[in-house]
Amino acid sequence: MGSIERNAPCWCGSGQKYKKCHLAFDERIASFHRQGHIVPDHKMIKTPEQIQKIRESAKINIAVLDYVAAHIKAGVTTKEIDDWVYRLTTQAGGIPAPLNFEGFPNSVCTSINDQVCHGIPSSDIVLKEGDIVNVDASTMYNGYYSDSSRMFCIGEVAQDKRRLVQVTKEAMELGLAQVKPWGFLGDMAQAVNDHVTKNGYSVVREIGGHGIGLAFHEDPWVGYIAKRGTEMLLAPGMVFTIEPMVNMGTHEIFVDDGNGWTVYTEDRKPSAQWEIQVLVTETGHEVLCY
Fold first, then answer.
1. Rounded to whole angstroms, how far apart are CA atoms 81 and 249?
2. CA 205/CA 196 separation, integer angstroms
């Protein structure tokens, strides 16, 4: 980061001289690196123009999940949800990012009860009273990506499952509160894990959040079992997801051998997940997508 001449144009594309733009920013990051911390590179720092394009993508993704929230109920098939997502996303000029991503066959992930994530929609899967379901939608719009997921309780749901859904949302929100410039991803992770374990649950370790914006999945990888003051430095301009997957029982999981995608809890107890897309700002954070 320190190899740019002071009077050269800044790497961010602002047109300003480096010394007037990102020199002090880079020097601050370099000081953390000298202390042994993991730091972001320039590719992880989004410009104001890129952030605005991500916001435009996120508007579509939010609207899609709002529609799902208004129409999901017992008797709906997960294929119907997939159809809603495809239709609304494409009508708005976007592309459902999961569709054909690394071979994924659908436009959205629908994960029910003991499915942790990557549930594949099907006309044979009908939501029923008492289910909890995660709907994970992602949008590519004009080359920029957004991503978020929400949990839905279908009709009358058992109290233990409702509590799991609520605690998972609380854990995500507590993690979000720790997203501050010049803090660390571990600050967020510990807040999430402390709340999860305090309530008798476990957080999935192998699957986490990710950087996002110019691509569907970017660095950094975002886990939830790290300690405060560890993992990557948080710098203004970073964009990533917070999406803890919380299991009622063991944290251990397995992948469906049949489709190669759907992840289940090892003990077949329920799992819940909420996902938001977050920007680190100069003063704190901004939720771009929810």
1. 28
2. 13
Question: How confident is the model over 231-263, as pLDDT tens digits?
Answer: 999 999 999 999 999 999 999 999 999 999 999
Separation between Cα atoms, residue 130 and residue 155, nearest integer Å: 6
Instruction: Kindly list the distances between the CA atom of residue 22 and the CA atoms of 4, 8, 11, 184, in Å, as whole numbers in the listed order.
Output: 10, 11, 8, 20
pTM: 0.96
Is the separation of the CB atoms in 205 and 251 below 8 Å? yes
Peptide bond into 121 cis (omega under 30): no
With beta carbons less than 8 A apart as the criterion, state whether 148 and 61 touch: yes
Asked if the model's pLDDT at residue 85 lies above 80, the reply is yes
Asked whether 289 and 146 are in contact (CB, 8 A), the reply is yes
Is the pLDDT score of 4 beyond 80? yes
CA dihedral 15, 19, 21, 22 (to 10 degrees): 120
Residue 126, classed as helix, strand or coil, is: strand
